[in-house]
Write a structure and sequence with these properties.
By secondary structure, the chain is an all-alpha fold. Helices cover 71% and strands 0% of the residues. The chain has six helices and no strands.
């Protein structure tokens, strides 16, 4: 993994004045968020593909958090002000958002094929809440979303433990 926010040796040292060319904290956070979102793309594609055929596994959560940590670290490797705590919080928030979006995408595909009022998958995705409100589908979606968060947490925990174990060797 490249030297970045998740390196053990990476401890930000703050001097009184900003060095020439040093980025602002907001820009550093934006780079970390962008890296985390970019890192989820392969796992999101896998998540949606597996969900379309009726499967979901912690493997998707593992790849999601691994990709986030890798890209976040890659994009912030030269930033002295990026710390691991901030990076972890960013990755957790991005994981929560992406799991929801992936699950919503899977269910939007199902709605497209099941509901005649849906002209496209995109329409079902955008109007998802309106389409499922007050139906049994809403409860089923909430249940599936909860299971997906559990699988993502299992995968993320596995990835985190592996990263910590290999980082200490």
């Amino acid at each position: 993994m490249p030297r970045g926010a998740f390196d053990e040796e990476h401890t930000p040292v703050r001097t009184g004045e900003a060095d020439e060319g040093e980025n602002s904290s907001g820009f550093i956070i934006a780079k970390a968020v962008a890296g985390a979102f970019i890192g989820t793309i392969p796992a999101a594609v896998l998540w949606i593909a597996m969900g379309r055929v009726g499967y979901i596994s912690s493997l998707c959560g593992f790849f999601m958090i691994f990709g986030e940590m890798y890209m976040c670290s890659l994009l912030t490797k030269n930033e002295k002000d990026m710390n691991i705590e901030t990076a972890v919080v960013i990755c957790i928030i991005v994981t929560i958002a992406m799991v929801y979006l992936c699950e919503r995408a899977v269910w939007s595909y199902d709605l497209y094929y099941a509901v005649p009022e849906c002209p496209s998958v995109g329409y079902c995705f955008v109007h998802f809440e309106k389409l499922i409100t007050g139906t049994d589908i809403s409860d089923a979606f909430d249940s599936a979303l909860f299971r997906s968060y559990i699988f993502a947490a299992i995968g993320a925990a596995t990835s985190s433990f592996r990263a910590l174990r290999f980082g200490r060797q």
